[in-house]
Amino acid sequence: MASDMVAFRHMERHLRGQAEGADFLVDLSNVVRETALGVGTSRALGRLRLVLRALREWTGDPGVTVHAIADNSLLHQRYDRCFPDPAEGALLREWRDRGLIAAIDKADPDLLDHAKTLGTPVVSGDFFRGHRGEHPWIQGNRDQFLKPEAQGRSVRLVPRDMRVFADREISREGERDALKVRNLLDFAGRPRADVLNRSWRCPIRDCNPSPSLRSGKAVCRLHGTLLTDVGPRRRRVQLKILVDGECHAWENVTEHEHKEFVLGRSHLVRIEECHLSEARRLSISRHHLLIIARQGMLRVLDTSSRTSRVRTLRPGLEPSPWKALPHRDEESEDRPRERLFRAFGPDEEIELTPGVVLRRSGQRWPGDRPEGVRARPRKRPEVDDEMTRMV
Question: 141, 206, 209, 300: least surrounded by Cβ within 10 Å?
Answer without folding.
Answer: 206
